Amino acid sequence: MADTRTAKLTFDGKEIDLPILSPSEGPDVLDIRKLYAQGDVFTYDPGFTSTAACDSTITFIDGEEGVLLHRGYPIDQLAGQSHYLEVCYLLLYGTLPNAAELEEFETTITHHTMLHEQMGNFFRGFRRDAHPMAVMVGVVGAMSAFYHDSTDISDPRQREIASHRLIAKMPTIAAWAYKYTIGQPFVYPRNDLDYASNFLRMCFAVPAEEYHVDPILARAMDRIFTLHADHEQNASTSTVRLASSSGANPFACIAAGIACLWGPAHGGANQACLEMLKEIGTPDRIPEYIARAKDKNDPFRLMGFGHRVYKNFDPRATVMKQSADEVLDLLGVENNPILATAKELEQAALADPYFSEKKLFPNVDFYSGIILEAMGFPTSMFTPIFALSRTVGWISQWKEQLEDPQMKIGRPRQLYLGETARDYTEIEDR
Ligand code: SDX
Predict the structure, then answer these.
(1) What is the CA radius of gyration of the chain?
(2) What does residue 274 show for φ and ψ, rounded to 5 degrees?
(3) How far apart are the CA of 298 and the centre of ligand 1, in A?
(4) Which one, 4, 307, 316, 396, has least CB within 10 Å?
């Protein structure tokens, strides 16, 4: 990673050599760790558009080329040929499992899907109309109070058990959060079902009748999980890393990641996108919304468009679009008016210089909501499904950071523009 090249920084009579670090993929990195000590200056980069906060071997993104690799494997190959639990193994351990390793991993995950029975009471403390994300943040944080035997982050085995518990239990938590808000009884996981089928059954089964999972919908669900599994140092992953740097337990760190993902600029965009498409309604209203998105005085943005990193296309959106067509065709709703509006909106935006010049293209959230709605999920469940999927990415990055001997607490500095020192004045003198 480090080589002999340096960048020379010259200012105020100072000359500072900054080592240049070479990646296996992507841009070079200027190592500024000694800059403050040597130059008595900070760098300034709100939003971290030009800042590498860590090194990692998990996921690589090339925003210009629309490349997304997990441990070197392209996302379209993983989405087409692998399945979510195998991708979980890959993200966690760095290599694709052989048959025995995969069977052991899937058996372990399957046997961790149940929640401590007392946790059911925790759900019942929420109002019935609580947003499922509010429930997930609360319940995942509360796991710290139920699984004490996997909170010692210095113990590799406890770190692994916590990772398995989180991956295994997130579908149960998300499904129960949904069931609670619609007043239906919780459905327990079944060990004879695969990961995606288990989730669909826990969401849509009722005690009054048998529920049969459609294998094509299960495959589409599994693919959505895979497409959202990890994504380099996005806002919620960076939140998990920062929380973990203080030594917080894994459940608290993942709860922090869920809270960050909830925002409409991040994981909340899939819900916001579908609500936007419904508000637009018919294709004839698309020009009005395109104009609003371009209007600097209007805070409206096209939800599901744009990305901090992808500046040509989001490779996940490409796969998701194919999946949308398959699922809607299967469900006999290929004439879904929302999908029709989405496709017309995509074409209109891509043809508009404002969007092409600003490199604003459909992202992963643009089509996922259409699939999820067609599968029967309410919009309030879109981000919980994103959180479920991203748990493996968060916990893999959490694990990688804890295994890094150079890890230290994250503590950014600032450009202070406030008052300089001044004396306190008594109230009668103000
Ligand atoms: C995810 O980081 C990740 O990897 C995230 C994610 C993951 O897997 O973890 O990929 C998941 O969060 C996908 C993004 C989902 N969010 C949305 O779809 C919400 C709508 N998108 C925007 O909020 C925005 O595009 C962001 C937040 C995604 C990216 O914002 P940036 O990179 O900070 O860009 P910016 O806000 O500086 O915008 C650049 C310009 C601005 O115009 P100018 O001030 O330069 O004139 O583009 C405009 C913005 O006004 N712009 C948009 C727009 N997004 C940016 N204009 C209209 N509609 C939009 N969607």
Answers:
(1) 23
(2) -65, -40
(3) 15
(4) 4
